[in-house]
Write a structure and sequence with these properties.
about 350 residues; alpha/beta; Beta Polymerase, domain 2; 6-stranded mixed β-sheet
Length: about 350
């Protein structure tokens, strides 16, 4: 500190006086960014903020203090960083930041556009921003998780430290940087393609082209949004004027695949084929009880039960069904036996 000239000492004094304001700015910037990301449905790896320490500022002034007339000329006293999962989210958040803050375009830089050979870990988008109501500016960095990890690794190994590294290591470092850059781009591309695939599936489901949609976790969830079991569940609930309680149906995916359902069309036909017998079974199960709450899974479960029995699966098939639904439960065999006898009583088998 003593080595600094009078001008730099005056800037340090400005810094000390401005610290309470900087701390308020830091809290407001963090809160503003968090609310904006939540409002726009954006999930990120991290949001970080920091105020440059007096020691760090003194070091900066010792190197190039003559460049700054006052503290306000130093644009990174307060810094914020958002680390995203995907490269295209960087641009989305940049657009949001442009609406939230006044951007100093002359001092902002998009390092991604520099296309330097060894720049992957440093490809951040740097905005110099002003928060409404404050005179001082702050720096906002946007980068992906892979870029952030790469920058941290490089810092740890001394790369970019000014120490010359043998060409052999430089070559290997640059090869890895290229692989990570490709991975960053590919993750974004895959996400875009998956989003497009889900939209196509939703369109096919809405248009009733169920035979064109392979059965998987995504497509099954999309199909369930159309509530194909609601009519059956309401009929079952009406037996005892019961309330229907929501239950997850995704665990039936394995069961449906075991029942040779390969497309959503197969699932739809399974429901249509066995719906009436599933209702008859439920009427026998609930008719002499005072149960007033039924699970929204009851319709699909009874359809699977009827299908297993009608196709010769017997008690062993029912036991396997309950093992999938309930795990390794000691009661599975007795539940299967009871269900089998209920089905026999109404001549389903």
């Amino acid at each position: 500190m003593d080595a600094l000239d009078l001008h730099c000492q005056m800037i340090l004094e400005e810094y000390r006086e401005a610290l309470p304001t900087l701390e308020r700015m830091q809290a407001e910037v963090l809160a503003t960014l968090r609310k904006a990301l939540e409002r726009n449905g954006l999930v990120v790896t991290a949001i970080e903020t920091r105020i440059k320490t007096e020691e760090s500022l003194a070091g900066k002034l010792a190197l190039k203090g003559g460049k700054y007339a006052t503290l306000s000329d130093i644009t990174d006293i307060l810094g914020a960083r958002i680390i995203t999962f995907y490269t295209d989210d960087v641009d989305r958040i940049a657009s949001i930041a442009e609406q939230l803050f006044e951007i100093d375009w002359n001092n902002s830089v998009d390092k991604r556009r520099l296309h330097q050979l060894d720049s992957f870990g440093y490809n951040s988008l740097h905005y110099i921003c002003r928060l409404p109501g404050y005179d001082m500016r702050f720096e906002l960095q946007l980068r992906t998780t892979l870029q952030h990890a790469w920058a941290a690794i490089n810092h740890d190994t001394g790369y970019k430290s000014g120490i010359e590294i043998p060409r052999e290591y430089m070559r290997r470092i640059n090869r890895l940087a290229g692989l990570l850059e490709m991975a960053d781009d590919e993750f974004s591309r895959i996400r875009t393609e998956i989003t497009d695939y889900r939209r196509r599936v939703q369109s096919l489901v809405q248009n009733g082209k169920l035979d064109d949609v392979l059965l998987d976790g995504d497509t099954f969830r999309s199909y369930l949004q159309a509530k194909p079991l609601d009519r059956l569940n309401r009929r079952i609930a009406a037996i005892n004027q019961a309330e229907i309680q929501d239950a997850p149906l995704i665990r039936y995916l394995r069961v449906l695949k075991a029942l040779q359902c390969n497309t959503l069309g197969d699932v739809s036909r399974l429901i249509q084929t066995y719906e009436e017998d599933a209702y008859r079974l439920a009427r026998h199960q609930l008719g002499n009880t005072d149960i007033d709450i039924v699970s929204s899974a009851i319709g699909l479960q009874n359809i699977c039960i009827v299908c297993i029995l009608k196709t010769g699966g017997g008690k062993i098939g029912l036991e396997r069904l309950f093992e999938v639904l309930n795990g390794n439960n000691s009661q599975n065999a007795s539940i299967a036996e009871m269900t089998y006898q209920q089905a026999r009583n109404i001549e389903l088998i």
